[in-house]
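> example.struct
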């Protein structure tokens, strides 16, 4: 292959990588769940209670998946801090920090605006979250059902406002 032909092939390969990479970046940047979300206690419902005193969730891009960080204050005043980073591939993702309802989470993208996260504590499934963003992109709703780490039936609706 002559020098001119090699340059053409290398240029095309580089252009293809650039286009492919920018497609992934664009898809990630436009995920409506990315951002910082503050818990709106007035719009949230907890069964069983009590509700936490405050909470913030940060969702950001991490390769083909996401990184989630949760911080807040529990009803009894203790600090809450946990998170995870993983993909939407159906594999278990280790939860870091202390989440009393799960030490692993499994992610599934349901649609552009919706994700399902399934938590397990040990080998037992505990809770499932349906996570969705409003059409205007300003509200994140987390509908939780299942049995928490204390063995209590849970049916919560958490509403978060975009910061």
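> example.seq
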């Amino acid at each position: 292959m002559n020098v001119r032909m090699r340059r053409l092939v290398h240029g095309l390969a580089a252009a293809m990588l650039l286009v492919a990479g920018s497609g992934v970046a664009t898809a990630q940047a436009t995920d409506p769940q990315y951002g910082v979300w503050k818990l709106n206690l007035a719009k949230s419902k907890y069964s069983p209670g009590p509700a936490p005193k405050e909470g913030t969730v940060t969702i950001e891009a991490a390769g083909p998946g996401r990184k989630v960080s949760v911080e807040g204050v529990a009803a009894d005043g203790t600090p809450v801090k946990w998170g995870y980073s993983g993909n939407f591939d159906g594999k278990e993702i280790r939860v870091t920090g202390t989440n009393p309802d799960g030490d692993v989470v499994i992610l599934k993208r349901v649609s552009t605006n919706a994700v399902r996260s399934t938590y397990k504590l040990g080998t037992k499934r505990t809770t499932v979250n349906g996570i969705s963003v409003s059409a205007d992109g300003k509200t994140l709703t987390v509908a939780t059902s299942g049995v928490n780490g204390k063995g209590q039936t849970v049916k919560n609706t958490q509403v978060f406002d975009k910061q």
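> remarks
DSSP finds one helix and eleven strands in the chain.
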